[in-house]
Specification:
With 148 residues, the chain is α/β, with parallel strands linked by helices. Helices cover 32% and strands 22% of the residues. It contains four helices and six strands; from the N terminus they run βαβββαβαβα. A hairpin with a 2-residue loop joins strand 2 and strand 3. Helix 3 packs across helix 4. The longest helix is centred in the C-terminal third of the chain and has 16 residues. The radius of gyration is 14 Å and the shape is globular.
Length: 148
């Protein structure tokens, strides 16, 4: 499935309180952050984007987290980088995802590659923690030319 940007907001009604909390968090810690939905072969996810100039850096959160955890440090990073914080599948405001039916490392490699393609990023720095780091390592091993 081809990846693409999706402009429609999250339509899951139960996510509304989470969406509202995230808007308040971004207003407080990372004003000017753009939120958008990105399609990948496993569904849609949310990407937070801040910074106009500089090389791209992609932030990948750990298990049971979400992209909004990066909000407090995004403005500092955005002074030097174009920052992208991504919700991993099934986390934050990403579509639900059943990990029990998939090879975890394979999902991570596919997800990161397709998200970078959708964002039009050829080579990036990746900052990650916990499971996000695990996925990033597998991706960097498979696609070393895309990770700086």
């Amino acid at each position: 499935m081809a990846t693409q940007s999706v402009s429609s907001p999250v339509e899951i009604e139960s996510d509304r309180p989470l969406q509202e909390a995230h808007v308040r968090l971004l207003a407080k810690h990372a004003p000017g952050t753009h939120q958008r939905r990105i399609r990948w072969s496993g569904g849609e996810t949310q990407v937070l984007e801040l910074g106009a100039d500089g090389p791209p850096v992609v932030l990948i959160h750990g298990g049971l987290g979400d992209a909004f955890q990066w909000a407090p440090i995004m403005p500092a990073l955005a002074r030097r980088f174009h920052v992208y914080a991504v919700d991993r599948p099934g986390h934050g405001l990403a579509d639900p995802f059943d990990y029990t039916q998939e090879d975890f490392a394979s999902v991570g490699r596919t997800f990161l590659g397709e998200i970078l393609d959708a964002l039009g990023l050829n080579t990036v720095s990746i900052v990650a923690n916990s499971m996000g780091g695990y996925w990033s390592i597998f991706y960097a091993i498979d696609a070393p030319a895309r990770v700086s």
